[in-house]
Design brief:
Blueprint (H helix, E strand, L loop, with lengths): L1 E3 L6 H6 L11 E8 L3 H4 L3 E5 L2 E9 L2 E8 L17 E2 L3 E4 L3 E2 L4 E2 L2 E3 L5 E2 L7 H20 L5 H29 L7
Parallel strand pairs: 1-10
Antiparallel strand pairs: 2-5, 2-6, 2-7, 3-4, 4-5, 8-11, 9-10
Helix pairs in contact: 3-4
Bound molecules: flavin-adenine dinucleotide.
Length: about 190
């Protein structure tokens, strides 16, 4: 039994030619850290959205702050940091394609995809790590059932995909409403 937990690089999906089509407009995230003092961010994190994207800023530990900016249109400006962190010591920003994707098959007899390898949403879903953990646990549970002869491999794979796809669809409905409320185009 093989479990693919390679995240957005989707090693097994690419190897087997299992497609993972986009379920949202193209979403690009830039993120980085800043060190110093920013009293306005010490009390509470902030999520500020406009029709062109959103910015998340938060203190992650004393003297260290994190930011993420999601771009809905255009190419991100490589040197951009949130205004409130200008004057602080910033790390070089990194980028990630966080377009929503769900693999057309997330399991077959012999293998399971878990976490972002199976389904990806952008950070506003706010539970990508939880999903990675729970999908790994579910895959482990089903694999044990198959190896113990308690569940047919095909049915276990089917049940897993049904579970992942249902969770994904629920999140898509919720996130689409969030983006439509911000005035962003392209969310059904
Ligand atoms: C900017 C940003 C902010 C986010 N913020 C949050 C947040 O606040 N809360 C939250 O819950 N989620 C957040 N997420 C989402 C979260 O990071 C992911 O959903 C989660 O990390 C998925 O876990 P994973 O184990 O599936 O994949 P990953 O964490 O991506 O781990 C995959 C691992 O596999 C390794 N790997 C890849 N290819 C191979 C290979 N061929 N062989 C061996 N190893 C390989 C990689 O190096 C990596 O270590 C955020 C994502 C981004 C991009």
């Amino acid at each position: 039994m093989l479990v693919d937990a390679t995240g957005r690089s989707r090693w097994l999906g690419r190897l087997l030619g299992v497609d993972s089509p986009a379920r949202s407009p193209r979403l690009l995230a830039r993120y980085g850290y800043a060190e110093g003092t920013c009293p306005t961010r010490d009390a509470a994190p902030a999520l500020v959205g406009t029709a062109s994207g959103w910015t998340w800023t938060a203190r992650v530990r004393p003297g260290t702050y994190q930011w993420t900016r999601l771009y809905l249109d255009g190419t991100p400006d490589g040197g951009w940091v949130p205004e409130e962190f200008q004057g602080l010591t910033a790390t070089t920003p990194r980028g990630a394609d966080v377009t929503w994707r769900l693999a057309t098959e997330t399991a077959r007899p012999g293998w399971f995809m878990v976490g972002d390898a199976a389904a990806t949403l952008d950070p506003t879903s706010s539970h990508g790590v939880l999903k990675a953990l729970l999908s790994g646990m579910m895959a482990g549970h089903l694999i044990a059932a198959v190896l113990d002869g308690k569940a047919p491999a095909q049915e276990a794979a089917h049940a897993y995909h049904h579970w992942i796809a249902g969770w994904f669809r629920t999140d898509v409905v919720r996130l689409s409403a969030f983006y439509r409320d911000l005035g962003m185009a392209g969310f059904a």
